[in-house]
Design brief:
The mean pLDDT is 77. The chain is elongated. The protein has 179 residues and is of the alpha+beta class. A three-stranded antiparallel beta sheet has the order 1-3-2. It has six helices and three strands, in the order βααββαααα.
Length: 179
Amino acid sequence: MAVSFRAEVNAQDMAKVARILRKVDKELLNDLGRSMRSGIGGTARDIAATANQNGAPLSGMTNHNGNTKWGNVKASISTRPGRQRFGWGDLVTINVDAGRTSRGMYIAEFAGYKNSNGSPTDARGPWFVGMLNLRVPGWDKGGRYVYRAFMPFKATIYRLAESLVEKWTDRVNVELENV
């Protein structure tokens, strides 16, 4: 399970553009994905570094070999221009993942979130949530580590994605004029 952030576009519009581009030149669509991954990759690594900055919030999360240990997160980028789900598609997704054997980050990240019934996700965890609140003051809900690290970069990522799409659109227009 990874923590993900998405920049969404209207998938019907993007799918229409993708269909046209596949007819003209599939490489143009692949180029958008490559430029998104390379352009936003540095920012994604910065998010992971910020989330890893303070290490495990509680000492017992690092000193054992079980699958609930704290693990440093790594960021990856995936792009799916032209694919849709429920009318909207992810143009770019940043996945921040600690790996399958290091669930401590996920436990700490999601501690304090509410489920659909409005009750805490784990009724046995008030002490754990209280200790996390002491370690991360001023953030008394879930998302203390990765989501909080993402927030300062959010506007930058959107501006970067927008500029990459604009450059790509200019290139596509030139290619279409030459057809």
